[in-house]
């Protein structure tokens, strides 16, 4: 079930790391990344991308040791069971978006095995203590060895932190949503039960309370007044493909306020407007607006790229929007190319870009650095040209020196010939 979300390369990386941990007897052992590259036939960027996908779905944790900060410790997590996977809304939404409604229903039907009707029966099975004789004093007073083993197992267990897979809920008023639905035919208990799903959809698509209330009413069974969660997922995914969902405020990190106040002094009004739009628009809506301005459409590949960025859990929505703007507007690309997007994301993460303002500041600094480097290369090329070009006097001087000896030889010959003629003339007299 993880495969459609993380991709084949990430799954192969997970299996390789798992086999290495078994070979190392689950002990810390140093391995080179070159070893992974050669065994998987992947480049560093592909391994990094696969690693982040595993981290996003909680299959892998990357740790940095204080004793050896230059090394990464990979801690593998056990996959969720099929039941736990489907109960996790964010994973179910991603799976539905990858495989489609028909395949998703087939997966669920294979997992839900109906129990046969046994009729009226009585359980006559033997209990544990009926078969095995255990002293009562040991049951009341558990031996210390058993308790020590229980503590060791509990400390070593890799439990999945579901909070890591849930969105930030500060920008969506769930109580307001319930008030909107209070006078409708929708059973509010079923809406409260779908709280996590509703908040996850809000994070991915930027749906506000008003639009969400309309979608919930459409996804409610009119016979039972119960909200159909699967139908709600389908409606949201289908509506996004056909029409824009109205932009609305989304998560805004507190860290952006200080960076914005500093950068506002040197950015113009147009840049400030861009920052505001990035802060108040959901990533998928932002992408669709730009593609409409370019007379294009949002492709399924672009939606996958955007989902991957969101699943990294490393960037705020405004940073993701700035990446989209940089690629489609600044770089003038026609689509969100996966390789380019991942490269920019990795570069921004390394340079600690936390909001739209710091992204613009980083891009400006990088542009200034490129201009300085271009100026240095130009000056160096000018100095090299001067050394290679000879001045005119250096070219002409040898010609002048070579002509003077030739003139001297001619005048001496003429003088000798005249003297010989004079001597001959005198003898004749």
TrEMBL record:
Residue ranges for the region (Disordered) are 385-415
Q: Where is the composition biased (Polar residues)?
A: 400-411
UniProt signal peptide: none
Name all Replicative helicase loading/DNA remodeling protein DnaB N-terminal winged helix domain ranges: 1-228
- InterPro entries xrefs: DnaB/C_C, WHD_DnaB
**Compositional bias per record (Basic and acidic residues), positions renumbered to this chain:** 385-399
Q: Where is the DnaB/C C-terminal domain?
A: 287-362
Q: Which family does it belong to?
A: Belongs to the DnaB/DnaD family.
Record's protein name? Replication initiation and membrane attachment protein, DnaB DnaD family
């Amino acid at each position: 079930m993880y495969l459609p979300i993380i991709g084949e390369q990430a799954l192969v990386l997970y299996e390789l790391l798992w086999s290495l941990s078994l070979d190392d007897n689950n002990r810390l052992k140093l391995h080179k990344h070159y070893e992974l590259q050669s065994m998987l036939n992947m480049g560093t960027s592909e391994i990094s991308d696969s690693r982040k996908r595993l981290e996003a779905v909680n299959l892998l944790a990357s740790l940095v040791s204080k004793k050896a900060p230059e090394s990464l410790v990979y801690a593998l997590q056990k996959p969720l069971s099929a039941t736990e996977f489907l109960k996790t809304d964010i994973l179910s939404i991603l799976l539905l978006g990858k495989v489609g409604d028909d395949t998703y229903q087939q997966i669920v039907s294979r997992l839900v095995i109906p129990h046969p009707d046994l009729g009226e029966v009585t359980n006559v099975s033997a209990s544990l203590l009926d078969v095995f004789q255990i002293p009562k004093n040991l049951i009341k007073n558990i031996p210390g060895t058993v308790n020590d083993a229980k503590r060791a197992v509990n400390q070593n267990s890799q439990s999945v932190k579901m909070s890591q897979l849930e969105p930030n809920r500060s920008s969506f008023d769930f109580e307001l949503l319930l008030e909107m639905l209070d006078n409708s035919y929708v059973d509010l208990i079923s809406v409260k039960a779908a709280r996590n799903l509703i908040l996850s959809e809000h994070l991915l698509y930027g749906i506000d309370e008003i639009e969400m209330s309309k979608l919930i009413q459409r996804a409610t069974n009119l016979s039972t007044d119960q909200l159909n969660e699967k139908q709600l997922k389908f409606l949201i995914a289908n509506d996004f493909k056909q029409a824009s969902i109205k932009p609305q405020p989304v998560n805004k990190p507190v860290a952006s306020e200080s960076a914005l106040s500093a950068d506002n002094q040197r950015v113009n009004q147009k840049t400030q407007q861009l920052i505001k739009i990035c802060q108040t628009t959901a990533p998928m809506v932002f992408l669709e607006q730009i593609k409409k301005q370019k007379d294009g459409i949002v492709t399924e590949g672009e939606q996958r790229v955007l989902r991957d960025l969101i699943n990294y859990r490393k960037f705020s929505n405004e940073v993701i929007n700035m990446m989209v703007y940089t690629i489609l507007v600044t770089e003038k690309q026609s689509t969100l190319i996966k390789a380019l997007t991942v490269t920019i994301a990795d570069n921004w993460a390394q340079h600690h870009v936390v909001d739209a303002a710091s992204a613009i500041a980083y891009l400006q600094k990088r542009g200034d650095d490129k201009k300085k480097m271009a100026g240095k290369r130009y000056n160096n090329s000018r100095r090299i040209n001067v050394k290679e070009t000879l001045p005119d006097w250096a070219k002409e001087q040898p010609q002048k020196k070579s002509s003077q000896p030739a003139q001297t030889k001619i005048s001496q010959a003429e003088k000798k010939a005249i003297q010989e003629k004079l001597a001959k003339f005198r003898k004749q007299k």
